[in-house]
Amino acid sequence: MSEAPSTAPVCYRHPSRETMLRCSRCERPICTSCMNDATIGHQCPDCVKEGRRGQRPARTAFGGSRAGQLGYVTTGIIAINSLVMIASAIVGGPRAIAGAGGFFGLLGTGTPLTDFGEVLGWATYGGQVHGVAEGEWYRLVTAMFLHYGAVHLLLNMMLVAQLGRYLEAQLGPLRFAALYLIAGFGGNVAAYVFQPANQPSAGASTATFGLIAAVIVINRRLLRDPGPMIPLLVTNLIFTFTIPQISIAGHLGGLAAGAAAAAVLAYARLPQRSAKQAVGLTVLVILIVAAAVLRTQAILG
Q1: What domains are there in the chain, each with its CATH number?
Q2: Residue 178 — pLDDT band, cuts 50, 70, 90?
Q3: Distance (Å, whole) CA 252 – CA 190
Q4: One of 42, 130, 147, 251 is an active-site residue; which one?
Q5: 57 falls in which pLDDT band (50, 70, 90)?
Q6: Catalytic hit among 65, 205, 247, 274
């Protein structure tokens, strides 16, 4: 005598598996391999995916993406600076890395690459006139990725690694990238405005000073103690004012620009927070550019 066929429901994803479980959302039969715990009962994989699509992505306290916790921008900044240093050493030789003087003899010499991209107001070399006032405005950006030797690079990238990961996690990748670039740009413009026109400078320290200020601003906004950052700031300021060949204007300009950008990002409120942040940062960039234009007119006038 043959057995009657089973009438038990089968999992819609695994037809060979009988089950008495059902998705609490769509009510389709699911097996134990397919069930996902929900607030009420269990849900099937398809309903879980559908629910995730309908959810708003998680944001930080300042409106940034949680992808900042992965630190991709921070890693990218370190990688770019390191690759530029390698390129500078290739075209400039071993003394581009160390042994050319400065900072107890540990800094490297300038190279054709640093000559091309460092902050320089107006000067003649190689039989030609060069500088921002001569139309080489790109120098106000490229200088933050150039370094005079491996020690110069190492000191700055240690700060980027230490502070960048924290700020990127708090702000999200895009906002952190904007903060970093504005701090570096602001510091380079300050060097252009306040240094002698023929005095060159370069380095990510314009941006890293901005990161120090940004951590203090962000921590105050989050009601966290900014005290641990004060010794770091004081130490870097002591180095700035006591060691020769350091761009005082660049460091202080980066500090001010980073603090201003961080304040815009930290204190913009809902609604339309992202739009307010974008407008605030745009106004800040316009003011920095205006300072560079006025300096150019002064040099050429």
Answers
A1: 7-49 (no CATH), 66-300 (1.20.1540.10)
A2: very high
A3: 8
A4: 251
A5: low
A6: 205
